[in-house]
Amino acid sequence: MPTTAVTGSASGIGAAVCAQLEKAGHTIIGIDRKTDDNFTSIAADLSTAEGRQNAIDLVYQQSNGVLDGLVCCAGLGVTAPNCGLIVEVNYFGVTSLVTGLYDALRQGEQASVVVIGSVAANQQVAAPHPMALAMLDSDEALATKLANEDQQAHIAYAASKFAVTSWSRQTAVKWGGNGIRVNVVAPGAVETPLHQASKDDARYGEAVRNFVAPIGRNSEAEEIASVVTFLQSNQASFIHGSVLFVDGGMDAMMRANSF
Ligand code: NAD
């Protein structure tokens, strides 16, 4: 029975991933700001170095140092309390956990890591932004400072998702030889509390509500979780370093010639 840790397990995509992986026979270790009664779970704040280390230590304890899967769903959207937090959770909360759990994943059976990115990673502002470069340089203080000075939550979000996607692909190249697959799932608009908050937001709500995928609707969290569950199975044994858009055609609509 594979053991898989899932961050952001208490809500939205993470909760749907836990339910589907459990059904597929995985033992789940959930990680979120609060514990969950449904499965083994860890309360940790992934926005801080101490919280991340606490999560890593407890996953080692609860998995006996052997992890077959890690799915990083925890994240904040444009309604986060401040822009620095978006960077801290969406980038450093992911990269620290993936790196910190490397030894446990190495002990796992055909281990697989999935990071939840976003279609927003491909926005023009994201890639060259100094915030993204500071993240990829592992400079948390600078990236957070730039995000808080800028106060443009959509840019902090896009930059954090660009950086975490790029980092995941670089990590896939490094880790492939050690038998650990690493992939990114990039959703479009998914009906979760995060997305509802964005739709209700005074600053971003109208743009979010008007950005509709070619398929004509938003997705349910279960439609993202089913792709994650596939990636965590042996049926996906040669998918490595990929970004899978699960977005109803949003990426195709924005950049049909980039693939
Ligand atoms: P959600 O708000 O329903 O769930 C996010 C979870 O992350 C929550 O349970 C929350 O408690 C947890 N979390 C946030 N900050 C944390 C912290 N500091 N420490 C520990 N846990 C923390 O949101 P969701 O829509 O399910 O989002 C999941 C992921 O999907 C995020 O990375 C988000 O960026 C990404 N995403 C969502 C959408 C969408 O439309 N919903 C689109 C693209 C990408």
How many structural units, i.e. domains? 1
Shape: globular
Average pLDDT for all residues? 97
* Distinct bound molecules: nicotinamide-adenine-dinucleotide
Strand content: 15-25%
The percent range for helix content is 40-55%
Query: How would a textbook summarize the main sheet?
Result: 7 strands, parallel
DSSP strand tally: 9
Quickly give the CATH architecture: 3-Layer(aba) Sandwich
Category by helix and strand content:
alpha/beta
CATH topology: Rossmann fold
The main sheet orders its strands as 3-2-1-4-5-6-9
Could you please describe the fold and organization of this structure?
- It is a single chain.
- With 259 residues, the protein is an alpha/beta fold.
- It has a single domain, classed as NAD(P)-binding Rossmann-like Domain (Rossmann fold).
- 47% of the residues lie in helices and 15% in strands.
- It has eleven helices and nine strands.
- It has helices at residues 12-23, 49-63, 83-100, 102-106, 130-136, 140-150, 153-175, 193-200, 205-210, 221-231, 250-254, and strands at 3-7, 27-32, 40-43, 69-72, 112-116, 181-187, 190-191, 219-220, 243-246.
- The strands form two sheets. The chain has a seven-stranded parallel beta sheet with strand order 3-2-1-4-5-6-9, sandwiched between helices.
- The longest helix has 23 residues, at 153-175.
- It is globular, with a radius of gyration of 17 Å.
What are the salient characteristics of this protein?
single chain; 259 residues; alpha/beta; Rossmann fold; seven-stranded parallel beta sheet; two-stranded parallel ribbon; 11 helices; globular; binds nicotinamide-adenine-dinucleotide; SDR_fam; NAD(P)-bd_dom_sf; oxidoreductase; 3 alpha-hydroxysteroid dehydrogenase/carbonyl reductase
